[in-house]
Amino acid sequence: MSHIDNIFNQVRALLQSQSIKLWEEPYYSEGLGSIEASIELLADEFSGKLGIDASRCKCVIVELQDNALRKLAARREFNATGLATFKVRRIDNRNGTINIMDIKCDLNELGSALQAAIAAKLQLSDANHVKCISAGRIVAPNVTLAAQQLKNNQQLLVIVGQGDSHNQNGALHERINKIKADVEAVVSSQNQLMEMEDQDGNPVFLPPNENRALLTGLGYCEKARSAMHREDYEEALLLLLEADEQFSACNSKFLESVDNYALLNLDIVWCYLCLKNVSQLPDADRRLSICERSFRRSYGENYSRLYALKGRGCPERALIMRLQLLQGVVLYHQNRRDAAYERLEAAAAVLGELKVNDEQLLLLVEMGFDVSDARLALRSSSGNVERAVQFIQQRKQQLSDARKQSQSERALHRRYAKQATKDSDWVNPRSVCTLTEMGFERRLAAEALKRTDNDVQRAVELLQTGSAELRANLPAVESADDVQLAALLQLGFLEPAARAALESTRNNLTQATDFLLKAIQSEEELLATVERVTKLATMDIDGMASTSQGAGPAPALIDTVLQKAKAEIDAYQAYKRLHADLSGNEQDYLDLPLLQEEQLLAEYRNLLEQ
To answer: CA-to-CA distance for 132 and 199, rounded, in angstroms?
Structure first.
């Protein structure tokens, strides 16, 4: 932030505190325009109060007056014609704000009309490359501006996803679309290529629709974090806002109980700052409040619960430091200078404690440890190398133990995921394991949980009082149909698996093939399946029986299996692309080198001293 921006903040705050309206007399007259004598007197007064050169004060006051008059004219035009004026700020990684322009558009128009108007102003050939951000949301092209709560005189951010000589990966627009397509393919995969874990390696289970939305959002967040490591904040911001849209489909209570949503909001504000943009201050303030509330729930008041469990050197303190730094920056731009000073000093104190000795870090790296693991371990052990080594080893063992212990829960999750087509059918695998450990039969336990919305206590009561009725209403186990079994065997599936698939799906051949494809655990096995079924398609298959359920003749079945198997192979390829630039470290989000934070802290402390 520049010195002149600092002056703007102070002058604007003083105008507001004295309720001075620069668009009214004695500073402006409809007939005369700006009244220079009054402006000069005001500039002299403010110069003495703020310790700023009078000529600079005058320039700032004149510019603020011009802005106020433009807003007033836009309001009158809107009232007369319904045409809204937007203050559009185009930003990029290298320069921050590179264009500021006024764009006019009717609020009853679709978002695509606003994109087209901006593209025309910027002389861009493809309006789809224009991404507008309003109050922390990407403006949807197929919804009216009014429905998206855009208002006259609103400030908008614009990121143009168009390739140039500095961008060897092609257009940002194309990259974002490819990332979204890959995440969609991976999340939709029947082989559950993505699963959720907490930071201790324990699986997280959710109903199908919520699970899908959260996995999609987390996929976007991972790619956004990778972009942030490259300092590509345009790409990161767009992906984070897409993730925010996905998270909005999740249960709000669940989001409040985990720190993923807090980190999403923290990262969005970090991108705002790194893109040198302060026009989204209200959204930044809102998101930091969400983050602080979530941290308080997770870590306790003043982070007491976190420090009691992990000590004051815990890696999470890097996130706390970034939160305090960003809060200080927002307070500064709100001209709440005393509060900003307190936050920045708190951030400085934590930053000092989190600094890692470069020689110790190099020593651990030379011992064969990953630089991220080494940095987190040194912070957690207050710089003690021996304890840092123990921390890394204990952490790896803890993750390994948690994953081994949850194998039965994960297996049940995969099994029920094959059967549940909607959230109301979903059964929590952890609750099933709890009830079976209490001695209840698995099928009865699953039915009881389904009826009680996965409430374990109510399910126990139902099992104790109504087990006979539960058992009577369980679907009968049907033997595998011989004709359908023969069809699956001709496709190359093994008899035990094919029989189990038909019995589990009550001889629904389509669901049985889905069941079998979901059971395939590797890309190699899928490729072998495709090769085997492709050969069948080229052979004389007249003798293959059609199904008794009208699923079509064998050629149709072969075509269906081929399409689904190829879709799964595409999902594996998408998974590889997604992970090509990810670290693979589940605690990567905690590994902040803190170099940028240190620079920003020094910059804003210096501004406060001016």
So the answer is: 34
Which residue type is seen at 73?
Answer: A
In whole angstroms, what is the distance from residue 238 CA to residue 228 CA? Answer: 11
Distance, CA of 384 to CA of 361 (rounded, Å): 11
pLDDT mean by block of 10 residues, the chain; 610 residues? 77 91 92 91 92 91 92 93 93 80 94 95 91 93 95 92 50 90 88 75 78 89 92 93 89 71 94 84 91 88 83 85 95 90 94 89 91 88 89 86 73 59 69 84 85 87 88 81 87 85 82 82 85 78 45 69 88 89 77 89 88
CA distance linking residue 603 with residue 284, whole number of Å = 19
Residue 243 in contact with residue 221, Cβ under 8 Å? yes
Give me the amino acid identity at 299.
Y
Q: How far apart are CA 74 and CA 88, in angstroms?
A: 14
Burial of 262 per CB tally in 10 Å (0-12, 13-18, 19+): buried
Question: Is the pTM above the cut of 0.70?
Answer: yes
Which secondary structure element, helix H or strand E, spans residue 102, and what is its range?
Answer: strand 96-106
3-class state of residue 582 by DSSP: coil
Going along 213-351, which residue ranges are E strands?
none
d(CA 572, CA 210): 22
